[in-house]
Amino acid sequence: MKLLVIGSGGREHAVVRALKKSPRVNEIHVLPGNGGIAEDAVCAPVSATDVEGVVAYARAHGIDYAVVTPDDPLCLGMVGALGEAGIPAFGPDRRAAEIEGSKVFAKGLMRKYGIPTAAYEVFDEVDAALEYVRRRGAPIVVKADGLALGKGVVAAATVAEAERAVKSAMVDRAFGDNGARVVIEEYLEGPEISVLSFTDGNTIVPMVSSMDHKRALDGDQGPNTGGMGTVAPNPYYTPEVAAECMERIFLPTVRAMNAEGRPFRGCLYFGLMLTKDGPKVIEYNCRFGDPETQVVLPLLRTDLLDIMEAVTAGRLSEVEVRWADECACCVILASGGYPGAYEKGLPIMGLEGGQLPGGEAEVFHAGTKRLPDGSLVTNGGRVLGVTALAESLPEAIERAYAAAGGIRFEKLHMRRDIGARALAALGERR
Ligand code: AMP
Ligand code: GLY
């Protein structure tokens, strides 16, 4: 089969490398891809948000099946557009993608169907929003309604910070019309758990749980980023927590989307917080997480294409999804300065054909570019993700860091404590 994957990050590289293991896959195309993905697939310069361009490319290249992973093409309706062109695609249609595309929709869904989440109010008028913030006090969380490149959420420690977040979204329109409405919600505390799941709208199969590290600096300091590293499984996700999530969150969400006439088919991502009152939903995403995918898919032992096609066809119940009984750690190598301003075009040393020559870990490319002379250079904030597997979490962490140490570029920044909180949780339990 000829596959098409849309996107250009480390997540897409992990999806491509998992799909390549399928004996049914002959060829993978990626739009637009990056310097490292080009080692594994045919890349072409069509933007991931150019719906017409992607459909035209898929038609011209005889694509049999497409996988749409980033949020914006999903929210733009790319899956439906490919379907109309006769090309089946993995991912929710536009109406189901609203579960991530609109926080107001997602919060309304949870309120209507009794799914545990932070208490909240919605505002489309700035004075009312400011009045509410002053009345409720800090800490408090301000969220832009629409997609905001992961920057639309401010967990404010003070009222002044919350007021600035409200004004930035609603008055300065930092996120354009996507911040015209805001959700203001209760500040929750507890460890975070990411659970990606496959669902065809009837059956839901959670994947191995994981833990993201969103802050730029060690000890969870510094600004929020797209994610600086992940471990899987997440030790806070015990069998008891998993059972409670299935009963109170996962199944009710799938049923709620059906009841709203928006059946969800694809990867549904639950961002959870384990509060003292039990697990609550922090956010839904309509897609695979990045960099969660870089630790979850390497542990998958069932053919990913088989699962994806079953999701699209509504027969997920027929597939047995199996996982390695191992642990994984992904360390992100970022450009110095990220998530603020950073330099691009710096030569990357230590890789051969985009991978580590010893093969001790897998390298997923995010912001990399191959120059005409064949050299590989940095081309984004998050540059590479290095994933190692092992029988235990401490070993996986050690291997990932040992492997990451073999890669160099100027001003490279990585956190040194990916997995530390997970290890502490394991220690507490002994
Ligand atoms: P998001 O952009 O929705 O992934 O949110 C970014 C981060 O903000 C989350 O990973 C949480 O750490 C934090 N966050 C979001 N909502 C809340 C909340 N209600 N209480 C505390 N922290 C939150
Ligand atoms: N790692 C968080 C996300 O993909 O949204």
Descriptors:
single chain, 430 residues, alpha+beta, Rossmann fold, Dna Ligase, domain 1, D-amino Acid Aminotransferase, Chain A, domain 1, six-stranded antiparallel β-sheet, five-stranded parallel β-sheet, binds adenosine monophosphate, binds glycine
Describe what you observe in this structure.
With 430 residues, the protein is an alpha+beta fold. Strands 12, 15, 18, 19, 22 and 23 form a six-stranded antiparallel beta sheet that branches. The protein has a five-stranded parallel beta sheet with strand order 3-2-1-4-5, with helices on both faces. The chain has a four-stranded antiparallel beta sheet with strand order 6-9-7-8, with helices on both faces. The protein has four domains: 2-93, Rossmann fold; 125-180, Dna Ligase, domain 1 (2-Layer Sandwich), CATH 3.30.1490; 192-318, ATP-grasp fold, B domain (D-amino Acid Aminotransferase, Chain A, domain 1, 2-Layer Sandwich); 327-429, Glycinamide Ribonucleotide Synthetase, Chain A, domain 4 (Alpha-Beta Complex), CATH 3.90.600. The chain contains 13 helices and 23 strands. The radius of gyration is 21 Å and the shape is globular. The termini are far apart. Helix 7 runs antiparallel to helix 8. A hairpin with a 3-residue loop joins strand 13 (215-217) and strand 14. It is 30% helix and 26% strand. The structure holds adenosine monophosphate and glycine. Adenosine monophosphate (AMP) binds next to strand 8, strand 9 and strand 17.
